[in-house]
Write a structure and sequence with these properties.
Strand order of the largest sheet: 6-7-8-9
Strand content: 35-45%
Number of domains: 3
Oligomer: single chain
Radius of gyration: 22 Å
Distance between the termini: 60 Å
Order of helices and strands: EEEEEHEEEHEHEHEHEHEHEEEEEEE
Structural class: alpha+beta
Largest sheet: 4 strands, antiparallel
Length: about 350
């Protein structure tokens, strides 16, 4: 077996939820991704829509058990010493498919080998093996330190601050009906949302449960400053979303973008801009990109048009956009596996 070492790390990652163009929903998931030799391992697995077992919304006891399995302090859950590396983000059922690998010790080192796509208790390496990935040999001390920082300090179960925490969103604005529909859509995809007219007098411990604050268009500069001051006084670092578009799928995408705290190098989609008749995007790995245009007509009705759906290679790309799809007040939403970006189309 190769003695060449790979580096092992963990980084916050997100499977972006959203209200899709066809009216369906995609669930929001926060998780810790595996960083191998400085890049997310997930990026090496084509355009796989999956999350690691280290997800923030699993019960603390199960989360701890997942960490101990990766440390080989607990038995592997599948035949042949195989562990789930990435699973279905919607149900996590092995029958939906999962990326698995054998994790074993070699003296002080940890080795991940024989990666495969698995839909039952037994993996078929010849038919479904990822033959170009691994084996990876990790130095045992560094590997253990990275994973053990996710374990509770005491005997209880739970995550520490290294694991992503499910956040709520605070919605502030005058159009209560729009905010109510937005809150309902966010809750449907797994993001908590509260509606208020300000943050004055809210206890600091409650403010710390929010990951983003979204301001409606009617909120004044003075009111926004007051909200920001309340969060700063509580020592809370939140993302702010200003000038919300009155289109629910776009609002949801804007908030998902704000909630994404993954390092830039751990994102597939890193840039989205729009000029007359085009959209410019940048992706860091081969992936499927879906680009949807949303616009309001003169009667404030919403029109939706998918303007691109295809696979892009790493780099910068220019996509043609039909002017009729972005006439008037319009927005573009770009979505790849795990990342979503929104931009306003200039008139």
């Amino acid at each position: 077996m190769s003695a060449v070492y790979a580096t092992f790390g963990l980084a916050p990652a997100m499977r972006a939820g959203g209200v899709l163009a066809d009216g369906g929903y995609q669930v929001h998931r926060d998780f810790m991704d595996f960083i191998v030799d400085g890049r997310p391992l997930l990026f090496q697995l084509s355009d796989l829509d999956a999350v690691s077992p280290l997800a923030s919304d699993v019960p603390p006891a199960i989360f701890t058990a997942q960490v101990r399995t990766l440390l080989l302090d607990a038995a592997a859950p599948l035949e042949g010493g195989r562990c789930v590396i990435y699973g279905c983000p919607e149900c996590e059922d092995i029958q939906c498919g999962a990326v698995t690998a054998v994790i074993e010790r070699d003296e002080d080192d940890f080795v991940w080998r024989d990666f495969a796509w698995q839909t039952s208790e037994t993996a078929d390496l010849e038919l479904n093996g990822y033959h170009g990935i691994g084996p990876f040999r990790f130095r045992g001390d560094a590997y253990r330190v990275e994973l053990e920082r996710l374990l509770p300090d005491g005997d209880g179960d739970g995550h520490d601050d290294a694991a992503p925490v499910r956040r709520r969103v605070l919605l502030i604005g005058a159009r209560v009906a729009v905010l109510a529909r937005l809150a309902a859509a966010l809750r449907t995809i797994g993001i908590g949302a509260d509606i208020t007219d300000g943050a004055t007098g809210v206890p600091a411990e409650e403010l710390r449960t929010y990951g983003a604050v979204a301001f409606g268009r009617a909120v004044t500069a003075r009111e926004r400053a007051g909200v920001r001051a309340a969060f700063e006084a509580a020592g809370v670092d939140v993302a702010y979303v200003d000038g919300l578009a009155p289109i629910i799928p776009v609002l949801v995408a804007q908030i998902e973008q704000a909630l994404d705290r993954a390092p830039l190098e751990c994102r597939r989609l890193t840039r989205l801009t729009s000029t007359a008749g085009t959209a410019d995007v940048e992706v860091t790995s081969t992936c499927r990109l879906r680009l949807v245009a949303y616009r309001l007509d003169r009667l404030h009705r919403t029109h939706t048009r998918e303007v691109f759906d295809g696979t892009l290679e790493p780099g910068e790309h220019r996509v043609a956009v039909d002017g009729r799809a972005v006439k008037g007040e319009a927005f573009l939403v770009a979505r790849t596996t795990g990342t979503v970006l929104v931009t306003r189309v200039p008139h």
